[in-house]
Amino acid sequence: MLSAEKNQALTQVGPGTPMGEVLRRHWHPVAGIDELERRPVKPVRLMGEDLVLFKDLSGRYGLVERRCRHRNADLAYGFVEAEGLRCNYHGWRYAADGRCAEQPYEDVVDPQCRLRRQASLQAYPVRAKAGLLWAYLGPAPAPELPDWEPFHWANGFVQVVFAEVPCNWLQTQENSIDPVHFEWMHANWTRRLNDEAGRGSGAGYAPRHLKLAFEAFEHGFLYKRITEDTDEQHPLWTIGRVCLWPNGFFLGDHFEWRVPVDDTNTLSVTWSFIRVPREAEPYVQTEIPSWTSPIRAADGRWITSHVINQDIVGWVGQGAVTDRSRELLGASDRGIAMLRRQLFDDIDAVRNGRDPKGVMRDPQRNQRVFLPSDHRDFFLHGLPLAEYRRDPKWWRLLTQFIFHAGQPDSVRRACEQATGVAQSRAEMIDL
Fold it and tell me: What span, in angstroms and rounded, lies between the C-alpha atoms of 289 and 244?
């Protein structure tokens, strides 16, 4: 349980707010690289700031405030040129660093271009990595953009999925250190949904959790668990899974980030790696596709058919900003308490001029950074197709995209070409 004041400190993300200042010390994924290849200008709202992301004709990325300094025209409707973004209203042109580089009529009447010096826009650094465009909204110098080892894994098909979630970032991130929800939201609830739809097997309940552990490490927290069908030799106990700091989740085959849009909206970002069978090696992916998953069905109800869609039901069901003053936390929530304490420690660190947890400054250490994974050997070395077929978990992940509803046909076909295996469209995941 948190007081209203403490809850506000962790959930408000605008400029100058305690958590907003913490989160601005980190890089955040905001778009797919391929998005700007299709359309080079995209409006972005990030931590309460309205911005526009662009790629100019010279290949430079820019992220600047959305309103032109002239008369507040919307730069999301601007057009890119060799150097920068031009406003479609009166032609003022802005460079990627926010400088006003041209004011067509004003430059004619004032060759000294004095008005330009007053017309800069707020601008933020943008970098491309792993199929994503990342933004940094904090003070200079920017820290290292984390170079996680999975970004370099070979022989895998990668796709990026976005979902627009109408609730605060923190209740989405707390999901990353909550192992018991897998038992109920993804296993037991899915069984009931399948039963209701006439697709179920009438199975009982999933194996219960018997033991949990939570540990801090350099890049976040680890959670570990034992269920009725595992023991202390199981990788989910000996290795565990990663609550990636400050707003990510790493589960071995995919990353999830929960990027604050503002106080009541979050951009869910999933980076999925599907290991191709050995018969399909060597496989080199030339472009990482990105797409946006729907979260509501045609009847207006939340989509419940896929893993992260189910998570979204749990997140938004708590309200736009959940009232933590009425919580009753139990033993399974020890990781939640650890996460919140660390966030308050981060607020204190930033107030005192220090970096918060998870910020990397050393470029020598930021190379293929290792993260614990319960099946790392599989992702590095793969399996022959025959062994894939014998393993229910990996075969399901090879033949169905279980994380988000709405995968485009073009992405499904590209995955099939990469793996040599047909993918099915399950109406409801079966875990």
Answer: 23
In what side-by-side order are the strands of the sheet with 61-65? 41-46, 49-55, 61-65, 123-124
419's enclosing H/E stretch is helix 409-419
How far is C-alpha 130 from the chain's CA centre?
12
If you write DSSP's letter for every residue of 232-247 in order, what string do you get?
TTSHHHHT-EEEETTT
Q: What mean pLDDT is predicted for residues 91-116?
A: 96
d(CA 183, CA 181): 5
Note whether 168 and 47 are within 8 A (CB): no
What is the model's pTM? 0.96
Instruction: Name the residue type at position 52.
Output: V
Peptide bond into 125 cis (omega under 30): no
DSSP category for residue 306: S
Neighbouring-strand partners of residue 29? 134
Residue (of 242, 243, 240, 241) closest to 232 by Cα position: 240
- The Cα 250–Cα 360 span in angstroms is 18
pLDDT in tens, 153-188: 999 999 999 999 999 999 999 999 999 999 999 999
User: For 385, which DSSP code?
Assistant: H
Which tens digit of pLDDT belongs to each residue from 277-320? Answer: 999 999 999 999 999 999 999 999 999 999 999 999 999 999 99
**C-beta separation of 163 from 404 below 8 A:** yes
Q: Which two tokens stand for residue 86?
A: 């031009």
Start-to-end CA distance of the chain, whole Å, equals 32
* 41 pLDDT above the threshold of 80: yes
